[in-house]
Design a protein that fits this description.
Blueprint (H helix, E strand, L loop, with lengths): L1 E8 L6 H15 L4 E8 L6 E9 L3 H10 L1 H5 L2 E8 L11 H13 L3
Antiparallel strand pairs: 1-3, 1-4, 2-3
């Protein structure tokens, strides 16, 4: 089950992200089998990192919480805001044909009554 982790950096973090980046990268490499994708969030012109986004593959939220407890940026207090949400992946289709099946179900529901 995918979980989306959306994190915003503290405005007063200074160079905390830079100082902990190598440890963060090592951690992500170690847990690469659980990371669907992720990366730094940037401001509109791309000149500054403002947070992080990760999509993790775990069965339960408690596993995600355990991952975040030891994640270097999180452990260092880099984030002013961190949210965790389950995701039902639709695109890319998993399994193939999912969107067509959903469309057919939606059209059928619209014709009821």
């Amino acid at each position: 089950m995918p979980f989306v982790i959306h994190c915003l950096d503290r405005p007063d973090a200074g160079d905390l992200r830079r100082r902990t980046r190598a440890e963060h990268l090592e951690y992500m490499i170690t847990h690469g089998d659980r990371v669907a994708f992720g990366g730094p969030l940037q401001d509109d012109d791309g000149s500054r990192v403002i947070g992080s986004l990760m999509v993790l593959s775990y069965e339960a939220r408690e596993e995600v919480e355990a991952f975040l407890k030891d994640e270097p940026y999180s452990r260092a207090g880099l984030f002013v805001d961190l949210s965790v949400s389950r995701l039902r992946q639709m695109v890319p289709e998993d399994p193939p044909g999912l969107l067509l099946k959903e469309l057919e179900r939606e059209r059928s529901a619209g014709q009821v009554g």
